[in-house]
Amino acid sequence: MTHDTLPATLTLPADALVPQTLPVLQVVQSSGALRILAVLSTFLLSALLGLVIARKAYQGYATTRSKPMLYLAVGIVLLTAVPALLSTVLTNLTALPGYQVVLVTNGAEILGLLSVAYSLYGDF
Question: Where are the transmembrane segments (predicted)?
Answer without folding.
Answer: 32-58, 70-93, 99-121
